[in-house]
Backbone:
């Protein structure tokens, strides 16, 4: 009987903190387009509410960086499993099409497709990290879907391949990297995929041919306990302030 | 004549006497463990956004007297969230841990019981935050529970089967009330 008490206490404490339990981050508002006519688009940006790095975490990261000989990010690919659930409501009386295009940023770089267009007449703009596919939405109806965890993980890895490994943007985005176990870093050394950067910011672009509203929620499974409990209500001082740069690829070298 | 009247009075009294309560079936008393399976539903604001689901409980305790037991309980309830999408088709769990007391009234092989307890409930996700059932960062609530049921003592003095019901108030979850029933097997050592 006496032995049962600590077991009960342990189970009670452990149960609500299961690592695999998802957290839902709801943006303050959806994205509405086409209110004044067709062809509009709008973008919303959501940064994950990641707690500031503790001294202990910083020390462990520095140690890991030293061992790999390569900078290791604070928020790593294996720390979070992120998916994005969405619903599009066509509030007009006409059938229409909508496109959700999701780009984003890790701690260091943001992916901006326009940056890869050096010559507008020659260069094709690369696709977004996620989405970019037209979705048919009948009049006065709702369509929903999800960008799955594996797709968001693939997008994060694609950004790393583009920015750290110098891979061609089309190759990185169009080839699946599911089986990849390590990438090549700037210094030429291998970096295990699990310690590459996770996406920490999502730039959600929504366009539609009719008056539509996009609602979305970001679902996060936080394996390391780094997402702030208060989510978007957390005080700014308790959150990591990421300042990723827009990635600028090197200009193409002219053939002699 | 007087004897005849006394005999008649005694016979009448015997005939009118209420049936005697059947003696309780022999059963073990002391430390017990109980496993239950059932269903639970939330009512109130939280219930509007949750479907009923299965529940499971484990209880351990001690029979202080033949009619009074105290113990602890760990449980889980599984519900499907019905918040306005997104998200949709998402499930969440309510974890339960309470200290409980139970009063039993044995009637032959059966026993009526009433139980109550105080403890904690915790939700596995914040999916109901979208509909203000949970405040930001809030995932746990104190839990006040009360219920009752009926228990059947098997021929084996260690084992009993029972059917119970419960209502529990979780004030921090927008005053959600969890109601449920369970079928259980109890083993007393």
Residues:
């Amino acid at each position: 009987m006496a032995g049962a008490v600590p077991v009960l206490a342990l189970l009670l404490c452990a149960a609500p903190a299961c690592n695999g339990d998802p957290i839902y981050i709801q943006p303050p508002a959806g994205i509405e387009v086409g209110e004044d006519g067709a062809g509009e688009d709008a973008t919303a940006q959501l940064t994950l509410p990641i707690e500031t790095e503790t001294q202990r975490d910083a020390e462990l990261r520095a140690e890991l960086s030293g061992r790999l000989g390569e900078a290791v990010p604070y928020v790593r690919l294996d720390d979070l499993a992120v998916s994005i659930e969405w619903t599009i409501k066509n509030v007009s009386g006409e059938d229409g099409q909508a496109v959700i295009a999701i780009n984003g940023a890790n701690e260091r770089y943001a992916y901006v497709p326009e940056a890869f267009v050096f010559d507008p007449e020659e260069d094709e703009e690369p696709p977004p990290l996620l989405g970019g596919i037209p979705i048919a939405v009948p009049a006065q109806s709702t369509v929903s879907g999800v960008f799955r965890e594996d797709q968001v993980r693939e997008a994060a890895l694609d950004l790393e391949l583009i920015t750290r490994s110098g891979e061609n943007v089309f190759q990185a985005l169009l080839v699946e990297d599911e089986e990849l176990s390590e990438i090549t870093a700037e210094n030429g050394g291998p970096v295990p995929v699990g310690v590459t950067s996770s996406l920490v910011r999502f730039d959600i672009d929504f366009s539609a041919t009719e008056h539509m509203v996009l609602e979305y929620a970001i679902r996060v499974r936080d394996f390391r306990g780094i997402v702030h409990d208060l989510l978007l209500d957390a005080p700014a001082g308790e959150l990591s302030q990421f300042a990723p740069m827009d990635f600028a690829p090197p200009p193409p070298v002219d053939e002699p | 004549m007087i004897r005849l009247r006394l005999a008649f009075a005694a016979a009448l009294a015997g005939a009118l006497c209420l049936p005697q309560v059947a003696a309780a079936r022999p059963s073990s008393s002391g430390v017990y463990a109980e496993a239950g399976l059932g269903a639970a539903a939330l009512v109130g604001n939280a219930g509007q956004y949750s479907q009923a689901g299965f529940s499971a409980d484990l209880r351990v305790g001690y029979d202080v007297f033949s009619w009074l037991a105290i113990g602890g309980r760990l449980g889980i309830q599984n519900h499907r969230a019905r918040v306005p999408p997104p998200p949709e088709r998402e499930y969440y769990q309510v974890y339960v841990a309470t200290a409980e007391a139970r009063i039993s009234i044995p009637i032959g092989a059966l026993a009526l019981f009433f139980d109550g307890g105080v403890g904690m409930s915790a939700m596995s996700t914040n999916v109901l935050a979208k509909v203000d059932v949970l405040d930001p960062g809030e995932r746990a609530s104190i839990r006040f529970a009360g219920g009752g049921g009926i228990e059947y003592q098997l021929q084996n003095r260690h084992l009993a089967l029972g059917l119970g019901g419960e209502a529990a108030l979780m004030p921090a979850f927008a005053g959600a009330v969890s109601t449920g029933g369970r079928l259980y097997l109890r083993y007393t050592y």
Notes: The beta strands of chain B are 31-43, 53-63, 68-80, 91-107, 110-123, 140-153, 159-170, 176-188. The helical segments of chain B are 2-16, 45-48. The radius of gyration of chain B is 23 Å. The first helix of chain B runs from residue 2 to 16.
